[in-house]
Amino acid sequence: MSQPSIPQGTRDFSPEVMAKRNYIFSAVRKSFERFGYQPLETPSFENISTLTGKYGDEGDQLIFKVLNNGDFLSKVAPEILDEKNSKKLASSICDKALRYDLTVPFARFVVMNQNKIAFPFKRYQIQPVWRADRPQKGRYREFYQCDADVVGSNSLLNEVELVQIFDEVLSDLKVPSIIKINNRKILTGIAQVAGVSDRMMEMTIAIDKLDKIGLEGVVKELNDRGFSENSIGCISQFLEQSNNADQNFNALEASLANSEIGMKGIEELKYVLDYVASIGLRDSSIEFDVTLARGLNYYTGSIFEVKVKGISLGSICGGGRYDDLTGIFGLPNVSGVGISFGADRIYDAMTELNLFPEALKSNTKILFANFGPTEEKYSLPLLKALRNAGINTEIYPDAAKMKKQFKYADDKGIPFVAVIGEQEMQSNLINLKDMTSGDQVQLSLDELIIKMKNNI
Amino acid sequence: MSQPSIPQGTRDFSPEVMAKRNYIFSAVRKSFERFGYQPLETPSFENISTLTGKYGDEGDQLIFKVLNNGDFLSKVAPEILDEKNSKKLASSICDKALRYDLTVPFARFVVMNQNKIAFPFKRYQIQPVWRADRPQKGRYREFYQCDADVVGSNSLLNEVELVQIFDEVLSDLKVPSIIKINNRKILTGIAQVAGVSDRMMEMTIAIDKLDKIGLEGVVKELNDRGFSENSIGCISQFLEQSNNADQNFNALEASLANSEIGMKGIEELKYVLDYVASIGLRDSSIEFDVTLARGLNYYTGSIFEVKVKGISLGSICGGGRYDDLTGIFGLPNVSGVGISFGADRIYDAMTELNLFPEALKSNTKILFANFGPTEEKYSLPLLKALRNAGINTEIYPDAAKMKKQFKYADDKGIPFVAVIGEQEMQSNLINLKDMTSGDQVQLSLDELIIKMKNNI
Fold first, then answer.
1. Of B327, B322, B288, nearest to B305 (Cα)?
2. What is the dihedral of CA A148, A152, A158, A163, to 10 degrees?
């Protein structure tokens, strides 16, 4: 029998890794709920028609399809089989596909339940998604997304609160972060002023690469795409002035004065920045970045991206406002705004910066050593009392050699070992060994419970 | 555009349902960790060879296969395509399949990581599984399993603790439960005494149906299968004497006296029951049931099933000991024992018995009404203070009509609405309306925080 393996681009999450991942998910979940977002889960597979055509041609290629069960060929027309065209055959033998993101299933849910939902509808969703991308470092075929969206409200207060959520989660996790913000309407204004309104998407895609290919690269790409010299000059000017400081902000405002939509974008941006400043952020900073574009073409207002200060890693969060997400399913004009936390990237950043608490190593606080039937039976009520007090406790299931039992505690990162021998049974005390310091103390059950409660 | 839908046998879990499901999952997770079980997650799809041949022919038919991406037909031999045999073609165009349960992926994980794992390895796993079963009431194509297993230990102490976990979880959830226990070795003993050792599996399958088809039905099935009259008589005698009371236990012991394995089964059973009795259960009862068989053929020792007292519903939990789960992947002789909670069944039982707490209706404790920009800006620092104090709080994002805002709180089950108007801004107090009683009080921020903390 060959050694078993797992599919390319997938991962097992061992207990040690799970503890760290759950630490991240808990922080995200807690903040989502703190701000009134409620959990939603959708099925892992959707009808294939729900997903196709929503992610562009490239996206469509990356959707995992689920084969129909039973004698799936019996329903396929012979011509289609004879053609030997994979794409055509796939659509005849697969009715379902694994979800590619959480946004489209969310839109589908909203449309299906529009008469039951209380709008504005604030939902969060933490579930895996699947993409048939070529696996590489940091890119997986199965990975979790953590999304919060509110639909049915145009209010920019939602943007303000989503910025607060970025800050709260990342401050809780101690990840030093810069929240970058821009507004699609500003980019639309730039396209107007540069005379390329009809090629807004192409311009955005090029600008989106500024980080990776620099201004020169962007200019080259626009050139290659046949943008006029004038337009390119105008766009570069915007990109150069860019960022941060107030005077640039004023310069931008002056340059966009003739674009109504551009001015609207600036107004929205100022509102969000103003409110955020008045409430104050904990540990993150926020920064306007006119070069922030975000690839997704459904964004129409505010856009966000979060980067980690001091290490080079792509963005760890993103998001933005969209005016018509549910339109694809026949429910137009439902504006919404949402954000997404990239759990894998955050995990990598926290690993690099050594930010995971030591205590995550084990859920179990005490291991009772096992000397045999008498000691075992004596120990069980003690274990019960500790567990009832909320302390995670286990007993080694066999009377194995002490060395082996201590090694088990060590391997599992259990911080304390309780040793109950004849003497302890007589004195009614528990001998507790601190696995870090090696110190041993004799404690009554009550003292042990108090010690552990202070230790959690 | 046609109204979107979801695939047969799958479900969306709305926030209201999610709150209830998470209530169940939290109770399960808490107890698993209380007893030293640690979380594990495996990929949603496995290599198809990992799954096929592990669940019997019937199971194999129910495995969902994932279509290979790209031009999958290019790797298929023309003969296979010409044959138009769905089963053969499937194995040429699908390398991956969705997991069918959590047990096989767990065994695969243990074998792959045998040199890194600290044995005994206690893991729990709460993830969805997929089966292409015909959907019907209470049976879904995607559903969660909640498993805890320990491998690498023969100790019956594990069984004792797993029984305690059943009791703790179901007592926490207030589900009145009977834990049924038997031992496969007793069934093997019965087969020996009845002279049908070589047809143990057939006998077990028949006995397993006793609940549904009665003793008469079992006798008929054994008859149909060609068991001799003598054997059937002997088996029925065991089934008749069965259950509960000590004298029957003694009768069973006497009848099995000539079967070494049968006596071993009784010894194991007594050990578990003894220990459980000495520790005591909270709200559940435990009951020996010689007719409990469990279909799965990998069980070799203790077997469990849990039923809800007073309502007719299949078992809500199950489990048992297996001697050679990892043998299928080339690692023999790793004994283990595990249990599984059926989240959907528990959900149904709790709904029927009205056991979900009222407070689950909303995560949000307070909604701030929104009267416009001035009140909004005044309110935001109050929201921040409440959230920092750990109180889930939201503000209606627009200055909509009060009626609409109160309806929103009502629909979402938010228990309190804070109203901040001109008067409140002047007095520095918050007008808090209790949505259940209709009472209104004026509170300072500090008083509000204390009131809410007592309310959580």
1. B288
2. 30
Nearest Cα residue in chain B from A124: B15
Q: For the purposes of burial, counting CB atoms within 10 Å of the CB of B245, is it exposed (0-12), middle (13-18) or buried (19 or more)?
A: exposed
How high is the pLDDT of residue B446? 97
Cis peptide leading into A120, omega within 30 of 0?
yes
Q: B130 at the A interface (CB within 8 A)?
A: yes
What CA–CA distances, in Å, run from A318 to A147, A293, A304, B397?
10, 11, 5, 21
Chain B residue numbers with beta carbons less than 8 Å from the beta carbon of A415 are none
Q: Which residues of B touch A95 (CB under 8 A)?
A: 7
Band of the pLDDT at A244, cuts 50, 70, 90? Answer: low
- Taking 70 as the pLDDT cut, the residues of chain B under it are 1-2, 242-247, 295-296, 456
pLDDT digits (tens, 9 = 90+) for A85-115: 999 999 999 999 999 999 999 999 999 999 9
Contacts of A155 (CB under 8 A, 6+ apart): B397, B398
As given in the structure block, the two tokens for residue A438 are 């090696």
pLDDT in tens, B276-331: 999 999 999 999 988 898 866 789 999 999 999 999 888 999 999 998 889 989 99
Instruction: Look at phi and psi of residue A340 and say left if phi exceeds 0, alpha if psi is from -120 to 50, else beta.
Output: beta
Q: H or E element: which one contains B178?
A: strand B177-183
CB contact under 8 Å between A128 and B61, yes or no, is no
The answer to whether the beta carbons of residues B318 and B305 sit under 8 Å apart is: yes
Residue B194 gets which letter from DSSP?
T
- The C-alpha atoms of residue B203 and residue B196 are separated, in whole angstroms, by 8
* B123·A15 Cβ contact <8 A: yes
Cβ distance of A363 and B38 shorter than 8 Å: yes
CB A190 within 8 A of CB A262: yes
CA–chain centroid gap for A81, Å, is: 41
- Report DSSP letters for A208-274, one per residue: HTHHHHHHHHHHHHHHHTT--HHHHHHHHHHHHH-SSSHHHHHHHHHHTTT-HHHHHHHHHHHHHHH
Is the Cβ pair A154, B275 closer than 8 Å?
no
- Output phi, psi for B344, to 5 deg: -65, -45
pLDDT (tens digit per residue) in A301-346: 999 999 999 998 889 999 999 988 899 899 998 999 999 999 999 9
Angle between helices A260-279 and B373-388 (to 10 degrees): 40
Neighbours of A233 (CB within 10 A): 12
Compare all CA atoms of chain B with the CA of A381 and give the residue at the minimum distance: B279
Which residues of B, range 272-291, sit inside 8 Å of A by Cβ? 275, 278-279
pLDDT at position A242, please? 62
For B384, name the nearest residue in chain A, comparing CA atoms only.
Answer: A279
Q: B378 near B368, Cβ under 8 Å?
A: no
In tens, the pLDDT along A411-424 reads: 999 999 999 999 99
Distances, alpha carbon A362 to alpha carbons A148, A312, A412, A434, B206, in Å: 30, 30, 6, 14, 44
Q: What is the ipTM of this complex?
A: 0.93
Higher-pLDDT residue of A455 and B354 is B354
* The token pair that represents A439 in the structure block: 């110190």
Q: Which one of B10, B45, B376 has the shortest CB-CB distance to A157? A: B376
A 239-268 → B contacts, CB under 8 A: none
Q: Are A63 and B416 in contact (CB under 8 A)?
A: no
Q: Which residues have C-beta within 8 Å of that of residue A357, sequence separation ≥ 6?
A: A23
Say whether pLDDT at A201 is over 90: no
The C-alpha atoms of residue A439 and residue A427 are separated, in whole angstroms, by 19
Place of tokens 């796993």: B125
